[in-house]
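Weekly sync, protein design subgroup
Attendees: M.S., D.O., the rotation student, P.L. (late)

Item 1: inverse folding check
M.S. brought a backbone from last month's batch and wanted to see whether the design step gives back something sensible before we order anything. D.O. pointed out we never logged the input encoding, so this time it goes straight into the notes. Structure tokens as presented (189 positions):
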């Protein structure tokens, strides 16, 4: 039997964020020593108890302190992110993990997270689907990349071989890290 750890993570309001994040890291390190197969770290911006606006940073630190455990976002809230920036951050994290990263994705349903970024809750599904579409197509593409959707218009710069500018990063794992999708209702697309 394989064991995994899902961390929302929970941070009691009386605990300083730095101390709470240290505790999260300690739990992941202990789980690695105990032989847990994987750990997933959630993402929320405006939740006091579940405040983890950048789980990739927590995962990056945990990667340096663990040896075997696979680490994943539980989940990256796709609708909250620019897909080009997200594709690069996830690809970089995947390189740092050298095969120990799993990408958990979802739309996001915390109204205050959406409000903070000025997003209409009615667009979360469509926006999430488009973010994922852009990320996967960007990773799969060679050369110039163009995307015109409902939420994003993207034109990558042409690669300059002399200055080596215009490159966009691909993940370490091919074609990409394993992707897990969060679904919590019968209508979760």
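Designed sequence read out in the meeting:
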């Amino acid at each position: 039997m394989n064991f995994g750890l899902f961390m929302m993570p929970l941070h009691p309001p009386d605990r300083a964020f730095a101390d709470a994040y240290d505790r999260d890291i300690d739990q992941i390190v202990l789980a690695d020593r105990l032989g847990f197969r994987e750990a997933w770290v959630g993402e929320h911006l405006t939740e006091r108890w579940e405040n983890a606006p950048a789980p990739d940073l927590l995962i990056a630190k945990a990667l340096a302190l663990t040896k075997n455990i696979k680490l994943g976002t539980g989940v990256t809230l796709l609708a909250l992110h620019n897909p080009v920036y997200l594709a690069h951050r996830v690809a970089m994290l995947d390189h740092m993990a050298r095969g120990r990263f799993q990408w958990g994705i979802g739309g996001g349903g915390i109204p205050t997270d959406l409000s903070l970024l000025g997003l209409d809750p009615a667009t979360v599904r469509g926006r999430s689907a488009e973010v994922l579409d852009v990320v996967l197509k960007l990773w799969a593409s060679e050369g110039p990349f163009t995307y015109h959707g409902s939420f994003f218009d993207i034109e990558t710069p042409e690669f300059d071989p002399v200055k080596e500018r215009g490159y966009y990063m691909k993940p370490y794992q091919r074609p990409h890290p394993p992707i897990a999708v969060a679904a919590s209702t019968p209508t979760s697309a």
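Discussion: The longest strand covers residues 70-77. The radius of gyration is 17 Å.
Action: P.L. to compare against the previous round before Friday.
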